[in-house]
Amino acid sequence: MARVLDAHEVEVEFVDAERDELPGLLDEGAVDLLVSAWLPRDADLVQHGMRVLGTLYRPYYCWGSYETISSVTEFSDDRFKTVFVAQSDATMMQDVLSQTPVLSGLTVSVCNDDALYDTVQKSRLDGRKFLVFLAQPHALFHDEAFQPINDPRFSQEMEAALLVREAVAACADQDMLDELSEMTLGNKVMSALEYAIQIDEMDPEEAAEAWQRGRLVAR
Fold first, then answer.
1. CA pair distance 59, 159, nearest whole angstrom
2. How many CA atoms lie within 13 A of 153 on its CB side?
3. Three-state DSSP class for residue 155
4. Are 132 and 84 in contact (CB under 8 A)?
5. Torsion of CA 62, 71, 98, 76, to 10 degrees
6. Secondary structure element (H or E) that encloses residue 57, with its range
């Protein structure tokens, strides 16, 4: 994406914002290109003067684990002791957990969103058996040993789309918009980028360049 913008001589300034800050920033005109809105979950953001471009990847909520288990049908009350979840996903997880009686005895550990990765890794080193409720892609999925567990109740894929400000799109180079709309990264690449930025503490632009040059491997 940065390569496309650079090729069209567009100067990029990154704005890092929480989800609840986005409507205000969009209304202020502080964001011209949003990466990325999860549709239909974030469909309300389109109402703030934005236009949907192409699909970058397809996120979905799931259980994740380092244990060998492929489906919720394999859950048992003595296999796991704890379920970890980020603060932003805690309410959704509680709704699903209430519909899964076999996991009713689990201890729920709610983490700050940025602390989920480190919390999970510490528990793994301690030899604990646990589940994680999260959305794929995520830095945790950069490790092939960490796998999603199928649960048909919430495994429906969303579309992670670019949103461009209508006023910007109206005067932007159409070739540039076409190139952006055709970009597809996929969940594995996004997990690798999340890992590079959150865990290796790479600058987003540096991580994007590393991927473009083949130095960032999607596992």
1. 7
2. 13
3. coil
4. yes
5. -130
6. strand 50-57
